Amino acid sequence: MNIVKHPNSIEFKVRGKFGLFSDPITRPGGEKYSYQSPTYSALIGIVKSVYWKPTIVWYIDAVRIVNRIQTTCKGVKQRYISGAKSKLSYTTYLRDVEYQVLAHFEFNENQTHLRGDWDAEKHLDLAMRGIRQGGRFPVHLGTSECRGYIEPCQFGSGGGAYDGYGELDFGLMFHGFDYPDETGKNEFSTRFTRQVMVDGYIKFDRPDEIPEEQKQLVRKYGDTYQFKQFGVRESVRV
Known about the structure:
Layout (H helix, E strand, L loop, with lengths): L8 E11 L20 H11 L5 E10 L5 E8 L8 E21 L12 H13 L6 E2 L6 E6 L14 E12 L1 H4 L4 E11 L2 E3 L11 E4 L20
Antiparallel strand pairs: 1-4, 1-6, 2-4, 2-9, 3-4, 5-6, 7-8, 8-9, 8-10
């Protein structure tokens, strides 16, 4: 698999006792079931826990599944705000997970007033410092009850459970959300894509490369979504 490393790429590994990358089909019923592999959106959340500013947009290039895919089931009590009695529902988690992640950033062309902060070397240095510190914010493997731990690594180093395994097709999976401040469009949509693992590696499609037919426009009460403009002095220090 041809995986390209960019000049401003970051590499790290993240591990945890449990992971829950929920299949959207199982969420409405309350009994959630995890995908077998992390989603693009979940990995973006992990990278943003390491370092994020509105000046940049993160892209996940690839992930390597190091440990064998295993699941475990737990009974979780649901609490209701309405005062109804809680009930026991079952959630299927991934257990003993470890991933190697390769990502890079690009400058956000929709925040052109932040051009004074377009310093690739500075952002890369701050991101690497965040990795060495284990993240600037708590790291979650899909959901808040699944805590993750980050440390630096060289992407592709060491042995993995799926070295030489061949191809494993996970089918159509949730990819992520299209946010107005990243796309420049006043709309909010979800993306789905086919996710394939080859010898333990999953190479992700860029959000702007996913066909329109694999996107679903989400509207809430007929509202028009607009992206947020970050003030240079108020919220961003350049």
